[in-house]
Every structure is written in C-alpha cells, then in structure tokens.
Amino acid sequence: MKAIAIVFIIFFLFVCNSGSVKVVDGDFTFSLEAVKKLKDLMDDVQLKSSRMSSSAVLCAKPALPEEFRAVCQSTEAGMVFSRLKTVADQADICEICAMAACTGCF
C-alpha cells in the first residue's frame, strides 16, 4: 500500500500557479475544468471505441481541449489519460485539495 502511495505521489507533483485548481502529472499541468471535460470525452470514447486504443481515438477528437495535445504526442498518453480520469472521477476531493495531484486551493 505504501508503494502505491509513493508511485501516486511521484506521478502527481505539486504545482502552485494561481487561485485555480491545477492537476499535475509528471511534466504536464492541466486545469481541473479541462480534466473534467476530458473525462466526459473519455466516457464517450470508451463506449464507442473497440478496435483502436482509447488514447488514439481520444487524440483524434476535435473536441479534445488544446492543453492535452502535448499528451497525445507522448508515448505515455494512455497512462497519463488513465491517471487523469482517476482524478476526474474524484473531482470533488480535488476541488478541496485533498488529492496530491491537485494544487492551487487557497
């Protein structure tokens, strides 16, 4: 259990920018609102995609917020999107900054 917590913390580092909540995964930083939009797209892609990987289908969507385009170029896109979905699934916790991946609450 301790190892899982350590891995989680490594993947989600703290970043303090402004008063808005930011979600950090490695070198990538996203607004919580964009992560929520991503979750909606991911739910839609998951229902419709069967042959292609979810991340490839997701990256092909014009509705994907621009801040995620850099993730699409990464070899870790599938894992990054998966971790971001975990954050979005628990967005209420993130909004009160009780999750290590979320920062910026004042």
From TrEMBL:
<dbReference type="Pfam" id="PF02058">
    <property type="entry name" value="Guanylin"/>
</dbReference>
<protein>
    <recommendedName>
        <fullName>Guanylate cyclase activator 2B</fullName>
    </recommendedName>
</protein>
<dbReference type="InterPro" id="IPR036382">
    <property type="entry name" value="Guanylin_sf"/>
</dbReference>
<feature type="disulfide bond">
    <location>
        <begin position="94"/>
        <end position="102"/>
    </location>
</feature>
<feature type="disulfide bond">
    <location>
        <begin position="97"/>
        <end position="105"/>
    </location>
</feature>
<dbReference type="GO" id="GO:0030250">
    <property type="term" value="F:guanylate cyclase activator activity"/>
</dbReference>
<comment type="function">
    <text>Endogenous activator of intestinal guanylate cyclase. It stimulates this enzyme through the same receptor binding region as the heat-stable enterotoxins. May be a potent physiological regulator of intestinal fluid and electrolyte transport. May be an autocrine/paracrine regulator of intestinal salt and water transport.</text>
</comment>
<keyword id="KW-0964">Secreted</keyword>
<comment type="similarity">
    <text>Belongs to the guanylin family.</text>
</comment>
<keyword id="KW-1015">Disulfide bond</keyword>
<dbReference type="GO" id="GO:0005576">
    <property type="term" value="C:extracellular region"/>
</dbReference>
<feature type="signal peptide">
    <location>
        <begin position="1"/>
        <end position="20"/>
    </location>
</feature>
<dbReference type="InterPro" id="IPR000879">
    <property type="entry name" value="Guanylin"/>
</dbReference>
<feature type="disulfide bond">
    <location>
        <begin position="59"/>
        <end position="72"/>
    </location>
</feature>
<keyword id="KW-0732">Signal</keyword>
